[in-house]
């Protein structure tokens, strides 16, 4: 690619990649002085690797000017020219995706599936808020998880006047940030031990509205707010809707434990029937996950037969010394809302009634 303007567009990409607005002009200036500094392969390399990651006018223009004028898939060939092995691996993967229609289709299908799931979460959250966060509700518990941001979004949409006299109680850091950043009034369960409605997510819900919660390690505070609420509502997408716990959620029952006792507790949980129980380890730090309360979490998967009576399982685990709280929420939810793939919402009530409505 020898065109002068194309080189400037490539420089814009490189500058954007640095995430440094002060550095971008310098890179463009270098493109003026050293045209050969931006070779064909480097431009195509950055285009292939950044096109799907960084929406940019420069990328769009390069798509039109460079790729459109190429002979097709070969435009992204032979870009694994870095001296860094990991960069070469990424480049090779990019080549394979752009040269293989099946991989492109698979990539598109994954993105489409993610959009469906997010849409289902939003449907469940919006419907639950519309039906359960009413004008006379003044103290509202906000749970944790990936569906909860949609709960807060819908509450905000009710308007400033509706929310002016309300106080919102968080179950953890995530929900606290959502409340504050949305301009809602933040409260604490110490000040408001009686809550009108708590809406929270779940990792799995069975036919009797028993839940597994604690995938985000917030289940102690979540259970406190669920018990404090006159009405506890669960919102989730269709993947969390099961007849028996443990069907879809294979990670096991989250158990918050005192750090001092975790080793002995792990032995006791194994003896209780969860031979694969493990201490949950952090992904962005060395060592175990530490909850908002300074405790550790054990994940304990059990056989399906144990999940058929989750309340008995809950009692067995809770009796172990050193257990702070168990991520089994039994006989607590008044209703559960599940967003479905077809745009409908399934509503399960604690009294056994179930209906599916078309969300508006």
UniProtKB/TrEMBL annotation:
Pathway: Carbohydrate degradation; pentose phosphate pathway; D-ribose 5-phosphate from D-ribulose 5-phosphate (non-oxidative stage): step 1/1. Its EC number is 5.3.1.6. GO terms for biological process: D-ribose metabolic process; pentose-phosphate shunt, non-oxidative branch. It catalyses: aldehydo-D-ribose 5-phosphate = D-ribulose 5-phosphate. One of its GO terms (molecular function) is ribose-5-phosphate isomerase activity. One of its GO terms (cellular component) is cytoplasm. Keywords: Isomerase. It comes from the Eukaryota. The keyword Isomerase applies. Pfam families: Rib_5-P_isom_A (PF06026). It is an enzyme of class 5 (isomerase). Belongs to the ribose 5-phosphate isomerase family. NCBIfam families: PRK00702.1, rpiA. This is Ribose-5-phosphate isomerase. It comes from Serendipita indica (strain DSM 11827).
């Amino acid at each position: 690619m020898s065109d002068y303007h194309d080189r400037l567009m490539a420089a814009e990409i490189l500058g954007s990649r640095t995430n440094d607005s002060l550095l971008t002009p310098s890179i463009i200036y270098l493109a003026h002085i050293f045209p050969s500094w931006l070779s064909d392969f480097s431009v195509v390399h950055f285009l292939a690797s950044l096109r799907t990651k960084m929406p940019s006018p420069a990328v769009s223009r390069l798509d039109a000017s460079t790729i459109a004028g190429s002979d097709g898939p070969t435009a992204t060939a032979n870009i694994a020219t870095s001296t860094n092995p990991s960069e070469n691996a990424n480049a090779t993967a990019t080549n394979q995706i752009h040269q293989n229609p099946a991989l492109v289709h698979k990539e598109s299908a994954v993105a489409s599936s993610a959009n469906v799931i997010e849409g289902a979460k939003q449907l469940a959250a919006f419907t639950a808020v519309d039906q359960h966060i009413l004008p006379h509700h003044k103290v509202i518990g906000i749970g944790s998880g990936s569906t909860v941001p949609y709960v807060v979004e819908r509450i905000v949409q009710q308007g400033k006047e509706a929310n002016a006299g309300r106080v919102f109680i968080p179950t953890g850091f995530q929900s606290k940030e959502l409340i504050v950043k949305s301009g809602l009034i933040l409260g604490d369960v110490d000040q408001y031990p009686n809550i009108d409605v708590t809406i929270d997510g779940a990792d799995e819900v069975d036919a009797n509205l028993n839940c597994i919660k604690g995938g985000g390690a917030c289940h102690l505070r979540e259970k406190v707010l669920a018990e404090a609420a006159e009405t506890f509502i669960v919102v989730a997408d269709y993947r969390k809707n099961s007849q028996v716990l443990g069907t879809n959620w294979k990670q096991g029952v989250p158990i918050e434990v005192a750090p001092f006792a975790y080793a002995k507790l792990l032995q006791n949980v194994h003896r209780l029937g969860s031979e694969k129980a493990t201490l949950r380890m952090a992904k962005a730090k060395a060592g175990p996950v530490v909850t908002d309360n300074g405790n550790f979490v054990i994940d304990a998967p059990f056989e399906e037969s144990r999940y058929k009576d989750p309340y008995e399982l809950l009692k067995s685990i809770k009796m172990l010394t050193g257990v702070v709280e168990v991520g089994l929420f039994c006989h607590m939810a008044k209703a559960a809302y599940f967003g479905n793939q077809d745009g409908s919402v399934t509503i399960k009530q604690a009294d056994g009634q179930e209906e599916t409505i078309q969300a508006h």
